[in-house]
What we know:
alpha/beta, UDP N-Acetylglucosamine Acyltransferase, domain 1, 39 strands, ten-stranded parallel sheet, Udp-n-acetylmuramoylalanyl-d-glutamate--2,6- Diaminopimelate Ligase, Chain: A, domain 1
Amino acid sequence: MKTLRQLADLVDGMVIGDENILVYGVGSVFQGAPPGSITFIGEKRLLAEAEKTSAAAVITPPGITASTKPLLAAANPKIAFAKIASLFVENTLGSREISPKAHIHSSVVLGDGVSVHPFAVISENAVLGNETIIGPGVFIGKNVKIGGRSRIHANAVIDDNTVIGCNVIIHSGAVIGSDGFGFIACPEGQMKVPQLGNVVIEDDVEICANATVDRATAGPTVIGKGSKLGDDVHVGHNAAIGRDCILVAQAAVGGSAKIGGRTTIAGKAAVTDHAEIGKNVTLSACAIALKDIKDGSFVSGHPAIDHQKDYRIRAAARRLPELLKKVAQMEKKITELESKLNKKL
Length: 345
């Protein structure tokens, strides 16, 4: 538990009201924040909703000076809430110990404070950094390197030669370093192209449940520092994801595609093989990028084009039934006029 003053110091905020009130966790304005929790609002009009909850305190934007509850004013309430919520995260992977039920090859190098849970398998010449946690049922292949303070959750697969940085989180069911999807059509059928590369995941990356990152045909498939991959995201062989990118659930990146830093690929959006997407680009949900996209673009549609243009096209398409009806009426009038003119002639 923390006092409201301690939380304000953490987020460089200002307390309005009782700074000694104790906070035990966080809660939602719209789902009834429980007693002892702190919640947040992004705008003044939601203050009344927050006051109806049982929350001990409310994080607000600057400018709100009075409430029935103690307030913590912060420049960005959402960021402040996230920082405070991190104080109350429970370690779901439990205590730091090496389970006798794990299989660890004799050549494996374990750093200080490493935890390995039951039924994990760690193969030859793997290296795990200090304080890294390997969950139950995880498979780690040969020559894998994992940096310090990383967490690999239950039943994830880290295949041979994968390199993972520090502070990386890989959630359950993710598969990192599986074969790239490489085949060549030939008279005898589909010939498999050996996938001899690996995957490199840089520091501070988080990869959510059931995501897949394929190893390269040659060289590495790269996930840049600070990037986040949602559930069921797929990254193809030899792709390069830049720094601080967001790939939302079910997004797909084709082989050898390049994604610039701070780009967002929304849910079910996709980038075709070899396309180059610039920095600070947004692909809206279900967009399909079939060609290169320049820095700073916001695109949507299939194929992906400028969002405003795509919006106008879709708006026009919705009017097509009405326009077709008008065209039919005009054609009928023209036919009638032509008939009258022919009679006069």
